[in-house]
Amino acid sequence: MAEETTQDSLLGDQAGNSPEPWYGEGQKELVDTKGWKTGADAISSYTELEKSMGGRLKMPTPESSAEEVRAFYQKTGCPENPAGYELATPEGDFPQNESMENAIKQIAYDMGVSKQSFEAIVKGYYDQMSADMVATKESGEKVLREDLGDSYDEGIKIANRFLETCSDEFCTMAKQLGLYNNPIFIKEWIAKGTQTLSDTLIKGTADGDKSDGGYVPQYKDSPEMYAMGDDDESKKAREYFKARGITY
Predict the structure, then answer these.
(1) Helix, strand, coil tally for the chain in percent (to 5)
(2) Which one-letter DSSP state was computed for residue 90?
(3) What 3-state DSSP class applies to 233?
(4) Which among 16, 64, 87, 133 is least surrounded, fewest beta carbons within 10 Å?
(5) Which of 57-66, 126-135, 179-188 is predicted least confidently?
(6) How many CB atoms lie under 10 A from the CB of residue 201?
(7) What is the pLDDT of residues 69-82, one digit of tens each?
């Protein structure tokens, strides 16, 4: 009887019934999916999983120390300090704001943003801003050409001459705000430049002779500055330059 019991427990009974499985009924689907044949197969699989998980990053928790959080950030690509972020110079005539860049570098560092992600985001921002500036410039130029007609080139020269008399701080701010591409401001600068020119013209010779024979425009090397004025001095200057081959 003992021999018969042993055979039944190892090979199934003589009627052909299989032995009890080594896993519970609730694990059958998992065992079939994994292809485990024995309990040893399952243990080996779990051991390999533990090894692979040991090399993976663990997300910080609210209980993690500042050092643990910073170590996690650096493993995911965050530089050691804000200066580790590098930004390429934007293409085109685009003013960089160094103080703004340093501020967002600090924010990115505090939040653990990777170097690659930060630089890609800022580059995308500058690229979009540059494209917007080009579009604004083209639109503003179109409006000015329609308004000024043949006097466009002369008007731009007068506006630039006027800006040369302004402070560096004013010009820098105007450029950063995109006013160099704003037709309203450009036409205002043209008007101011023309008015300044009219107010500072020197008439006649040093002894007060204001006849045409002794007249020389103050800006004798810049005929374009007199192209748009309707005052007597601008008209007189144009006649002076026309007599010398300048075409308006």
Answers:
(1) 65, 0, 35
(2) P
(3) helix
(4) 16
(5) 57-66
(6) 20
(7) 888 888 888 999 99
Residue 195 and residue 229 in contact, taking contact as beta carbons nearer than 8 Å: no
Q: At what angle do helices 115-148 and 183-200 cross, to 10 degrees?
A: 60
How many H helices and E strands in the chain? 10, 0
The per-residue pLDDT for range 145-192, each reduced to its tens digit, is 998 898 899 889 889 989 988 999 999 889 888 898 899 999 999 988
Within its chain, how far is the Cα of 219 from the centroid?
A: 42
Q: What is the pLDDT of residue 206?
A: 38
Token output for 66:
């500042």
What is the rounded CA–CA span in Å between residue 4 and residue 86?
80
Distance CA 190, CA 225 (A): 10
Length of the chain measured in residues:
248
148, 155 in Cβ contact below 8 A? yes
Q: Which residue has the tokens 């994994």?
A: 34
